[in-house]
Specification:
Layout: H1 21-31, H2 39-62, H3 66-71, E1 80-84, H4 91-101, E2 107-111, H5 112-128, H6 135-146, E3 149-153, H7 160-175, E4 179-184, H8 202-211, E5 212-216, H9 223-230, E6 235-236, H10 243-255, E7 263-267, E8 270-274, E9 276-278, E10 281-285, H11 286-290, H12 296-305, E11 308-314, H13 322-337, E12 341-346, H14 363-372, H15 376-380
Parallel strand pairs: 1-4, 1-5, 2-3, 3-4, 6-12, 10-11, 11-12
Antiparallel strand pairs: 7-8, 9-10
Helix pairs in contact: 2-4, 6-7, 7-8, 12-13, 13-14
This protein binds adenosine-5'-triphosphate and magnesium ion.
Length: 386
């Protein structure tokens, strides 16, 4: 995720958005039993539909040949949309639906944390290369050359350096006509609450409110919690013929039957391959995460990025597997600290995973955390992202 991904401009968009399509897809999911009909979500779909129509008009206009374009009036760029609400209400799900439905190619959906890492990388390279000119203006132009629509999931500000960069960057992006869809747990007015030198951040809040329509999502319930409760267990053992079925059912339950699309996470040049990623749910194996030389930073990044990890095939660990046991402990610590919900299949119960060998005593903390992570209280806790 840290790689610099502002890609060059792509070709023109051939397709057209058919007004109302996003409702149709939502209702198909409802009919198939993947989603429950939720009026608050439908209210947000109305805003997303309007935005899709606006983006489509803008793109169709710009795709016209020059003389035609010259004689017609350019449509103004649409207002961006800022969706906020409590956890598990369906913000990311609606953003995914919107993103998939939007027929343009110049679009990007990115976790806000990953985006900020890219911005910092750009700043770092700019300073290393002693480049002249306005860094933020250049960055904004690079982003706009590849992207008309930016979808930011889990927008939040916790750092004064980020707060300062964001103010200038977003004002440039909006001025260049970039349209954003943002999801957050907070109303813009509550961003960076109690932050250091918050008064310097206030103009940014005004900017957001000027350029974005702010939409609350007071959906009926925390659907994530509901889906976690619906699972027969979250720690499945032993690894028998039903184990894979359990994993598939869990993935279906948590992703509304999404297809298993592989993903990867890049941390300081290292790649972690994930067998499936959908929104904030990742599916991976013990082999991939703990039998390779990964370290705390990798696990922290994973825990930051995803609210739920489905982990397959945790084996009973012998004395010789001390490195794997240590890595697994580090992984569980990262998940626990970030309140990531863990669903897994294992050969044995937590208490029997690693009984002898180096670090077996310390491993007791891992066992205790694994057990606590099954508790109602843990399930109710909110994911913590940096
Ligand atoms: N109407 C619905 N019916 C059933 N499941 C739903 C519905 N809306 C969302 N979900 C499911 O609930 C889970 C949580 O949704 P989502 O991740 O979109 O929440 P969120 O609002 O983004 O939460 P957070 O603030 O924690 O990021 C997902 O598995 C999603 O597919
Ligand atoms: Mg979300």
């Amino acid at each position: 995720m840290i790689n610099f991904i502002f890609q060059p401009a792509r070709q023109q968009d051939p397709q057209k958005y058919i007004s109302g399509s996003i409702f149709e897809i939502y209702h198909q999911h409802v009919e198939q039993g993947h989603l429950q009909n939720d009026l608050a979500q439908i209210a947000v779909l109305h805003q997303l539909d309007t935005l899709l129509i606006g983006i489509d008009k803008y793109v169709q206009f710009n795709n016209q040949s020059y003389p035609k374009k010259f004689f017609s009036k350019s449509p103004s760029t649409s207002k961006s949309l800022y969706i906020y609400g409590d956890v598990g209400r369906g913000k990311s799900m609606l953003m995914d639906l919107f993103y998939e439905t939007c027929p343009i190619q110049q679009k990007r959906r990115v976790h806000f944390h990953a985006f900020m890492l890219e911005v910092h990388e750009f700043v770092h390279q700019w300073r290393n290369q002693n480049r002249s000119g306005d860094m933020i203006v250049t960055l904004a132009k690079e982003i706009r050359s590849a992207t008309l629509l930016l979808c930011f999931d889990e927008f939040h500000v916790t750092d004064i350096a980020d707060a300062m960069i964001l103010g200038r960057l977003f004002s440039q992006l909006f001025a260049l006509g970039v349209v954003m869809v943002i999801t957050s747990n907070r109303h813009p007015k509550d961003l960076y609450e109690n932050g250091l030198q918050r008064d310097l951040f206030l103009p940014f809040i005004d900017l957001l409110q000027n350029y974005c329509l702010t939409q609350d999502l007071p959906a009926q319930k925390d659907y994530r919690l509901q889906h976690l409760h619906a699972l027969q267990t979250r720690y499945y053992f032993p690894i028998d013929s039903e184990a894979e079925k359990f994993i598939q059912n869990s993935f279906n339950e948590l992703t509304a039957f999404a297809s298993r699309t592989p993903g990867k996470l890049e941390v300081k040049g290292r790649e972690i391959i994930l067998s499936a990623v959908h929104g904030d749910v990742a599916l991976s194996s013990f082999q991939e995460l703990c039998e390779r030389p990964l370290a705390a930073l990798d696990y922290l990044e994973l825990a930051n990025e995803f609210t739920t990890l489905i982990l397959t095939n945790i084996p009973k660990l012998s004395r010789q597997k001390r490195n794997e046991a240590k890595r697994f402990s580090t992984l569980v610590d990262a998940l626990y600290e970030h309140k990531v919900k863990l669903i897994c299949t294992a050969e044995v119960v937590p208490e029997e995973l690693y009984l002898e060998g180096d670090g077996a005593f310390e491993f007791k903390r891992t066992v205790s955390r694994l057990i606590e992570m099954q508790s109602e209280r843990y399930l109710l806790s909110k994911h913590i992202a940096d």
